[in-house]
Amino acid sequence: MFYIIGLGLCDEKDITLRGLEAVKSSSRVYLEAYTSILMIQQDRLEAFYGKPVIIADRDMVETQSDEILKDADKEDVSLLVVGDPFGATTHTDIILRARALGIPTRVIHNASIMNAVGACGLQLYNFGQTVSLVFFTETWKPDSYYDRVKENVQLGMHTLVLLDIKVKEQSEENLARGRKIYEPPRYMSIPTAISQMIETESTRQEKILEPENTLAIGLSRVGGDGLQQKIVAGTLKELLDQPAEQFGEPLHSVVIVGKRLHHLEVEYAEEYAVDRQNWRRVAREVYGCADL
Amino acid sequence: MFYIIGLGLCDEKDITLRGLEAVKSSSRVYLEAYTSILMIQQDRLEAFYGKPVIIADRDMVETQSDEILKDADKEDVSLLVVGDPFGATTHTDIILRARALGIPTRVIHNASIMNAVGACGLQLYNFGQTVSLVFFTETWKPDSYYDRVKENVQLGMHTLVLLDIKVKEQSEENLARGRKIYEPPRYMSIPTAISQMIETESTRQEKILEPENTLAIGLSRVGGDGLQQKIVAGTLKELLDQPAEQFGEPLHSVVIVGKRLHHLEVEYAEEYAVDRQNWRRVAREVYGCADL
Questions:
Q1: Model confidence pLDDT, tens digit, residues A108-161
Q2: What is the span of the domain harbouring residue B14?
Q3: Sheet strands (E) in B109-214
Q4: Closest chain A residue by Cα to residue B105
Q5: What share of chain B is helix, strand, coil (3-state, %, to 5)?
Q6: Residue B292 lies in a domain
Q7: Global pTM?
Q8: Looking at beta carbons, which residues of chain A come within 8 Å of B18?
Q9: ipTM tops 0.90
Q10: Of A59, A82, A111, which marks where a domain is finished?
């Protein structure tokens, strides 16, 4: 059996009992380590499972999946994925490949940011499509995400913005010279994300992401024990003005609040507001949220 | 500490290790049993945890939450929720109440249908807002859900349709006479949902849910072991024509496929199609999905 197992969001204890059973029965265990990160390292997982964990990079999962799937028709093999297995397209690919090889497959679900984002107090059914924000460079500032946010904003829906992760990237020079030297991993922070969004707004000027009139919520390490999880709510401008350490360790995500906003959502998230009064004021005056 | 613990989707083994630790440390354990159902019964959970599990109905969670929260500042109390704790509004209420009482709260996330729906092969980031479909009666056929689906359809996004659950409902007569006699639980099935959607389409006639030109996917017991999970894909008409047993046991959900459709999504879901040729044909000809 080929198992794809969601690890949840934080550490080794977020696996489900069903997932742990599958790991224990597997002769090989891979960890997909490029679309997200756990808050812990490989060695802690290995100690916890009592067996080696093979790191599977993008290259391995996308182009050498037959190696991962080898003998999975005769023995159990597990691929561990941070969050839920259906967060990233590549896992659909490997399941399709397993099917083509006649290998039975089982998915073991877990929390992912796609549902755990509810921790900020906004109702999940009021979220529209999810968007991804990539690192801008001097010459490349893709803004198609802005159109997606606009679609959601126009319907009054919230938007979950997933922030870029660069793992095992090569510099242009190393890439050009074919040198397999990789840059240190980079995770987009909430302040970077917000400054990019404000930059796009200043170019597009369609009043979708106005710094002082747009409410947003930054989340980091959702589900993390005690002090690890950070949720910070405010206008884009307020969030931009916060010191970086306010937002905690990566991974970070941002939610753009939509206008179909219920007063309970405002009250719940107020707990996390940089400035509670301004949070309520913008919700009432700009968002038109009644009952506040 | 007051814990709200997601149980995941299927049975006692879908709890996370972190969740199980919290249950073990709790002096009282409640199970919220009206917004969703597990595939197993209370006694099996009690045997597994080695302690009693108190069933908390809507009345208890919504109006007697202080009873649940009693002494949670001095000892551990757990409220178990099927799926993830942030699926239903009521859990926000009880957390707000705990905050007001100065009781520390911890949420332990898990998979919910909101992210596990990815099992059907459609990409989660292409889903728009989620809608709920309630049981129609002779005189009450609310169709505001149709407007929400329309918003998603017009943007090309997929729609997750959550189907009504009636638990601990009273008949009109018993309600009028104040008799606390409850009807047996009812769970809306995929065929009922689809026939209601087709009924709304025939009234509204806005070509949002045309029986032969709308692709949909029915899901039941997502994440369930082996034969329990059922996924069936086809046009609304094809799904309506399937025998009821094809769809498995409750809970059921339906996805309305949006036009921003990638060929990998079509290929993945084809595995579940009632008629693979027609599935591809509609995806290509009606949805305009290239590369098929």
A1: 999 999 999 999 999 999 999 999 999 999 999 999 999 999 999 999 999 999
A2: 2-111
A3: 131-133, 159-163, 165-166, 186-187
A4: A226
A5: 40, 20, 40
A6: no
A7: 0.94
A8: 10, 13-14
A9: yes
A10: A111
